Amino acid sequence: MKKIMEKLSKTGILGLKSEKQDDEALLRQVDALFEMLSELYGADKLVLKGTKLEILPYMRSEKLEERVLALQFLVLGRTGAKKVPQLNEVPAVLMQVEEELATVMARRSVEEKLEKLVVEKMQERHEEYLREIKLQVLKENSGPETAQTFKRLAMLEKMDHQGLTRSAMEVLRPQRLEEVVGQERAIRALLSKLASPYPQHIICYGPPGVGKTTAARLAFSAAKERKVVPFSKEAPFIEIDGTTLRWDPREVTNPLLGSVHDPIYQGARKDLADTGIPEPKLGLVTDAHGGILFIDEIGEMDSMLLNKLLKVLEDKRVFFDSAYYDPTDNNIPQWIKKIFEAGAPADFILVGATTRDPSELNPALRSRCAEIFFEPLTPTDIKAIIHNAAEKLGVTLDEAIPERIAEYTIEGRKAVNLLADTYSLTLYREECGDGTPTVHIREEDLLEVLRTSRLSPYVLQRGEHNSEAGRIFGLGVTGFVGSLIELEAVAFPIEGDKGSIRFNDTAGSMAKDSLFNASSVFRHLTGKELNHHDVHVNVIGGANIDGPSAGLAIFLAIYSAVEEVPLWQDVAVTGEISLRGKLKAVGGIFEKIYGARQAGMRRVIIPKENSKDIPSGLKGIEVIPVDTIKEALEYVVDRERKTEKAVAS
Description:
46% helix, seven-stranded mixed beta sheet, 24 helices, five-stranded parallel beta sheet, 22 strands
């Protein structure tokens, strides 16, 4: 506005406001105004406007008043009757024209400036758009590769061609169900539950290294060959470890069930994040759809995550939720809309494996699953595994090696590892030149591996066919594996009735209750008081036997020590005793029998109430169910030595 006023001032127009202005000055002022109008609108447009307003004659007139009238119509927008102003009115009219013209020119200046800015901005956007188009074309033609990315790709491809041979565990892993040793009953149960028109969810219990995972995988492959099963030939077997399943309670990430990557979080696809669309990430339960989801160490899973998994088992679908999901948004792809509205399919069979006791697992999980127990491996099973592994490795063995390995482990995996370590040591020692030696593994090499690994024999006590007073073997269970518990007792006759009974503090409070029960049963059975003796009962090794199943063993140790009755040292016993001398049922019979057989016991005494728990087809050990302590004494006491001692006395 200021610049326009300066321009008007230079023409001599402003400042001519006195009544004494002469005609010549007014004419110059009018001419200047017409010239500015011509520059503002253009001569042609100015003539067209004058013609439209019917003032063209006034514009070309020689009279000052008529030309001023034309300015009024052109600038001030006058319409209607054309009244020529008087000469004395001309200065005032010209002042109005000047002010309006200044306003118009100022507005035009601002508009030109804005238009210039708009043009510049449009030019910038146009150039930016052209750059994006060029980059897109370059990307489509050349891709994201650079010299550096090509170099890294070449390195990866080179590494792919530089592979080692398979590990020993891969070579020795069973490839057929027939190669899984010692688990015939468990495999039969697995097949019956999978190879069915209505397969069941399963939990596999058992000690580590007995083939739970391998058996499940091979049983599933065998089940798919049956025509009655709902599994297709391409049905997946998804294997995961329950100890590694970690998730975010905010549901930002959940590898098992799946999660939603909201636009504000990293991980959503760029095209979805830019439009504010949440992206579902499907989990392993959807990957296992139509097949098996195998979770090893399922007992170690997070409890809340396990409960969410149980909900999926019921619904056979996974449902997702997100505050960013808008079902009315037309930009949402159909696949995302379907997942949010109908859920992702997750119809699978769950197979879990654990080394935990069933009582430690979620009851809701157990109620949905069939339970299969894998058996501890016997020395015979370990020997068979070693012979099979030696055949696969193409080696010969010293005759004592399978027996020696069976002494140090009851795990098939550990047995194979020991053989593989010994095989490597033998190769290192022999240094064969052609690289394809006929390897013979010696017992000395195995002993060196055992010493290096600082292993000790798994079975420390073994049954011996002799008798001894005050010593008996009880049975315990730890992690599906039975083991011997060695108890010993001594009794010292004293004068008076101030005798005492001592027992290990580490044995546990329930074991001490069994000790008091045993003393009462002793009095009931023999009619004698223990307070005439100082009795000391000891659990060898200080083991914790906090359970009622040691009651029979404690009684027999005390009875043998006080009465000086010899007991067979290849007989193991288990059972809870009542105050009336009855034997009550206990748990873990299956594992205890296998533990006794592992230790070379000839006979196992169990409560009669546990008769149903005796394994079918059991070989190599005699299991005798009894109802009372008197019956147990018939099988535990060495009658011949007792008779000889009685005659000698």
